[in-house]
Amino acid sequence: MSQPAEKDTFANRTVIVTGAAGSIGEPLCMALARSGANVVANDLGCSPDGTGSSVAPVIKLVAKITSEGFSAVADTHNVATEAHKIVANAVSRFGQIDAIINNAGIIQYGPIEDQSLSGVRDIFEVNALGAYALCHYAWPHMKQQKYGRIVNFTSDSVFGMPNSSAYVMARGAMLGVTRTLAVEGIPHGILVNTVGPSSYSRMVSNVSKDLPEAQLEWFKATYTGESNVAVIMALASEKNKVSGEIWTSGANCMGRTILGTVEDVRNVHTVDQCIDAMVELKKTDRESMEPHSIQEFLLFKGKRTRL
Questions:
Q1: pLDDT at residue 3 greater than cutoff 60
Q2: Which residues are catalytic?
Q3: What is the reported pLDDT for 7?
Q4: How far is CA 181 from the centre of its chain?
Q5: pLDDT at 64
Q6: Domain ranges, ordered by start, for the chain
């Protein structure tokens, strides 16, 4: 099912989308273009594990967008090593950068002892460092224009997903950096959020192939790339006024994930006291809060320890 166009929502805005030719990226780029955006569609065209390269999918995507009379340019630079070239391409073609959607990601499955460290580095460079680098190079442009929207990608796998530790590490890294950039962006009109989308794609096909056939078909039909588009577009739009949050999407649903802290147990001096404290700290009725900066975290901790 095609995504309805949000007419003029992104008029005259330039949006960089990495992983543009993937299951989420392709319908997202189409929807952004139809809503008036100048889309910089970045995709190296590698396999889910990061090997190989084919520019054909992103070239085909951009050809489809432009054939409908909308604005897009294909970018085939490697986000892990050439983020500066992606930013330079966007600025040279459209004169500005208004939003970045850090969708690119690769994954390699296997228990931790079987994951090669070179593979772990590759995953971290694409999923985390590449996203960070795009923010780094685009930030001065956004500061100058006093406007920006950044959507980083995390994953529900941060709650624990076996045989994917490198992927989870990289996606988890985006939680803290999103909160930090959200604080840095406040005086400059730059809003930064992260989203954990759910979509059937090549990336999850290996782990879902053993599902019963009926369940697999339901998963494919329900968790489509298109079913994430509205949430991501909302976060990247001028209409959004919220920053520093962790959102989820998929199946045309939107949720929010909480990163919080609970009241300390005081006066623990022995191992046994710490073991007992663990039980107390896991109680659901213990006072808690959701800090959005280190200052808020320390104020909460300080309030409790001074009692």
A1: no
A2: 167
A3: 75
A4: 13
A5: 98
A6: 14-257, 261-305
* Residue pLDDT, tens place only, 216-253: 776 688 889 999 999 999 999 999 999 999 999 999 99
Fold of 14-257: Rossmann fold (3.40.50)
Sheet holding 148-153, edge to edge: 71-75, 38-42, 14-18, 99-102, 148-153, 190-197, 246-250, 253-257
Q: Which has the closest alpha carbon to 209: 127, 109, 106?
A: 109
Q: Is the pLDDT of residue 267 over 70?
A: yes
Pick from 34, 82, 43: nearest CA to 230: 34
CA distances from 220 to 23, 195, 198, 217 (A): 11, 20, 11, 5
CA-based diameter of the chain, in Å?
Answer: 70
Percent over 70 (pLDDT), the chain: 93
Q: What tokens does 250 get?
A: 């998929």
Taking residue 214's Cβ as centre, other Cβ atoms within 10 Å add up to 8
Confidence label for 306 from pLDDT (cuts 50, 70 and 90): very low
Q: For the chain, what is the mean pLDDT?
A: 93
In this structure, are residues 281 and 262 in contact, taking their beta carbons and an 8 Å threshold?
Answer: yes
The CA distances from residue 264 to 72, 174, 269, 272, in Å, are: 52, 26, 14, 16
What was the pLDDT predicted at 1?
45
